[in-house]
């Protein structure tokens, strides 16, 4: 079992109060974890504040070199980190290792992009120089999720650190040992207090979000994001949020239903549905609905039954499925909590769903595919737009005009056409509405982590 410690001002400190994390595979104990106190939060933020001017004054090339060294250390620590991630949140070890590799790539990407993140000269008076320059915001609080704890953390940490900010990092209380091991690998490559780590649950997170920091960057649940937005409205910090989603998938008439069902299954069931941009609701044209449902059920029954992060989350997923069934949805496969230890839940297909069911209207974050049958592409677009969220959407169509309409009209940050997952490296998008605000990835994240200053320079008067 891991004995997690906190890193405050360059010093690993033991817990004064702690809790335990049990694994979703079999319920065994994985880690004992400190619960950060208000004093811990204050000490970490002060240390970060004191260290920030020196780190900001460090040459960009030197900051980039530190990030590259940290990426190399993370690469070398992949095996232990992947095993710990799997034990804490249930992802198979091979998939966890792929997530670590994505984190390594992200750190290396920001090491290169950070040195190129320049300002620009303005066309002003010929006797003066006018510039727009980027400067670090200061202290960044990074609050990260459990479902992809390394890759997401590396994005926020890499962009913040390479631009001259210091960071107080709080990983999710559901994957704290993963965050602890990640910090142990990264922190030695930076000066003391440039990267600190706190652990704990909602109380610790709220204390950090309300502290005197300059940015609170959060990836996680919408309710938490809204609480952070309220906290930063009081302090004046910038809120950078990527929060929940209820991402639609539209299946148009004329597509191969077997191919569409395979795309839908991967989108809804991969990582037991615990992916930020997972498929959460399906709008299927009536012309292909029957063969599509048959193929989706077959695909679901071929998918392995994986664990959700814990039994509390499994109970919430099952409650949505049960409520849909009670309201008239048909459970075509799955929908039953299996016997045995852990927090496993089967891939589940629901037919006859309506937009007012929680399993359609809200974020489920589990391996559930609720299907709504529609009579036209127009109806599918209209119903897909009716959401409190705006993270991502997928459209499966053979019509170029329908594809064009979809990406233009769907009010989300990312639209994927004919692929449930995919995209070029460095892509970034703005989540909308309940799904957050600000860029979370790509070169644009460097802009989020910096402020722009306008400078006007003139020569002194000759009379001086």
What does this structure look like?
- Residues 12-455 form the Aldehyde dehydrogenase domain.
- Pfam families: Aldedh.
- Keywords: Oxidoreductase.
- It is a single chain.
- With 464 residues, the chain is α/β, with parallel strands linked by helices.
- It has 2 domains: 2-243, Aldehyde Dehydrogenase, Chain A, domain 1 (3-Layer(aba) Sandwich), CATH 3.40.605.10; 247-417, Aldehyde Dehydrogenase, Chain A, domain 2.
- Helices cover 42% and strands 23% of the residues.
- The chain has 15 helices and 23 strands.
- It has helices spanning 38-56, 60-76, 78-89, 93-116, 149-162, 176-186, 202-209, 222-235, 257-269, 286-302, 311-326, 358-361, 377-385, 400-409, 444-448, and strands at 2-3, 6-8, 11-13, 18-22, 29-34, 120-122, 128-136, 139-143, 166-170, 195-197, 215-219, 238-242, 247-251, 279-285, 330-333, 348-351, 368-374, 389-390, 392-396, 414-417, 432-433, 436-437, 450-458.
- A 7-stranded mixed sheet has the order 15-16-17-14-13-19-20, with helices on both faces. Strands 10-9-8-11-12-22 form a 6-stranded mixed sheet, sandwiched between helices.
- Strand 11, helix 8 and strand 12 form a beta-alpha-beta unit.
- The longest helix has 24 residues, at 93-116.
- The radius of gyration is 23 Å and the shape is globular.
- The mean pLDDT is 95.
């Amino acid at each position: 079992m891991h004995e997690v410690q906190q890193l405050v001002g360059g010093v690993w400190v033991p817990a004064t109060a702690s809790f335990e994390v049990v694994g979703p595979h079999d319920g065994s104990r994985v880690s004992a974890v400190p619960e950060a106190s208000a004093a811990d939060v204050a000490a970490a933020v002060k240390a970060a504040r004191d260290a920030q001017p020196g780190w900001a004054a460090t040459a960009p090339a030197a900051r980039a070199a530190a990030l590259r060294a940290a990426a190399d250390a993370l690469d070398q620590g992949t095996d232990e980190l992947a095993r710990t991630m799997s034990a804490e949140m249930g992802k198979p070890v091979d998939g966890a290792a792929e997530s670590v590799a994505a984190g390594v790539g992200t750190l290396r990407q920001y090491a290169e992009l950070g040195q190129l993140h320049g300002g620009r000269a303005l066309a002003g008076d010929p006797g003066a120089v006018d510039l727009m320059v980027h400067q670090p915001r200061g202290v960044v609080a990074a609050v990260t999720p459990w479902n992809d704890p390394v890759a997401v953390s590396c994005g926020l940490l890499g962009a913040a650190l390479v631009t001259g900010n210091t960071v107080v990092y709080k990983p999710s209380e559901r994957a704290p040992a993963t965050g602890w091991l990640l910090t142990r690998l990264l922190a030695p490559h930076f000066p003391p207090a440039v990267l600190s780590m706190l652990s704990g649950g909602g109380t610790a997170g709220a204390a950090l979000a309300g502290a005197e920091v300059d940015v609170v960057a959060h990836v996680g649940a919408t309710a938490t994001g809204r609480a952070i937005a309220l906290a930063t409205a009081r302090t004046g910090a910038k809120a950078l949020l990527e929060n929940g989603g209820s991402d639609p998938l539209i299946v148009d008439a004329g597509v191969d239903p077997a191919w569409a069902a395979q795309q839908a299954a991967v989108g809804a069931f991969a990582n037991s549905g615990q992916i930020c941009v997972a498929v959460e609701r399906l709008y299927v044209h009536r012309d292909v609905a029957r063969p599509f449902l048959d193929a989706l059920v077959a695909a679901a029954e071929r998918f392995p039954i994986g664990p959700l992060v814990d039994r509390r989350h499994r109970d919430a997923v099952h409650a949505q499925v049960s409520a849909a069934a009670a309201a008239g949805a048909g459970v075509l496969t799955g929908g039953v909590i299996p016997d045995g230890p852990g927090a496993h839940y089967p891939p589940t297909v629901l037919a006859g769903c309506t937009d007012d069911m929680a399993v359609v209207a809200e974020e489920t974050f589990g391996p559930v595919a609720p299907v709504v049958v529609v009579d036209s592409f127009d109806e599918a677009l209209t119903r897909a737009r009716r959401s409190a969220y705006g993270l991502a959407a997928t459209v499966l169509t053979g019509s170029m005009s329908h594809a064009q309409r979809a990406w233009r009209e769907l009010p989300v940050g990312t639209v994927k056409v004919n692929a449930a997952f995919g995209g070029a490296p460095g892509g970034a998008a703005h989540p909308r509405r309940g799904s957050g605000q600000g860029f979370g990835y790509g070169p644009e994240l460097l802009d989020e982590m910096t402020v722009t200053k306008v400078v006007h320079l003139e020569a002194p008067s000759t009379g001086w």
